[in-house]
Design brief:
This protein has one helix at about 1-15; strands spanning about 25-30, 35-45, 45-55, 85-90, 95-105, 110-120, 120-125, 135-140. By secondary structure, the chain is mainly beta.
Length: about 140
């Protein structure tokens, strides 16, 4: 239901207003749980996002949280702060797509696209294969 509402809002915006500026997603965003802040930035014409802040910065032992579930053993010791989780998104016709989102919670990377709902809200969708088979999270602008 939430996904259909977001699609309806996004389509409504696209049909009734100007398309967003490609850099409208640049900034700091929090995910729907407000436990992570992601900084989205443009580099070489593509859009990326890295973890800037975690509500729970440290693990149960008081150490910085690491990318423990990464499928690559040599990457499991990298800190989550500063980790690039969104990469290679390109802007086209009101949507940022063609890139990937990494979920450190399960160690998997998914195809991704982003659409703005309004200036302070965006729908971030990660999926496997077809966008129908995925999950949308609503992010809110922090600044």
């Amino acid at each position: 239901m939430k996904f259909l509402l977001l699609i309806s809002l996004t389509l409504s915006k696209l049909l009734t207003k100007e398309l967003p500026n490609p850099d409208d997603i640049v900034g700091i965003w929090k995910n729907s749980t407000s436990r992570v802040h992601i900084q989205i930035y443009r580099q070489n014409g593509k859009y990326f996002g890295k973890i800037l802040w975690l509500k729970n910065l440290n693990d149960e032992r008081g150490n910085p949280k690491l990318d423990k579930k990464n499928p690559s053993p040599q990457l499991r010791n990298r800190a989550l702060i500063g980790l690039v989780t969104l990469r290679d998104l390109t802007y086209d016709d009101g949507e940022w797509s063609g890139g990937y989102i990494y979920n450190p919670g399960d160690g998997r990377e998914y195809s991704a696209f982003i659409s703005l709902v309004d200036n302070n809200t965006m729908a971030v969708r990660g999926y496997v294969g077809f966008s129908l088979f995925g999950k949308t999270d609503v992010w809110t602008r922090v600044r």
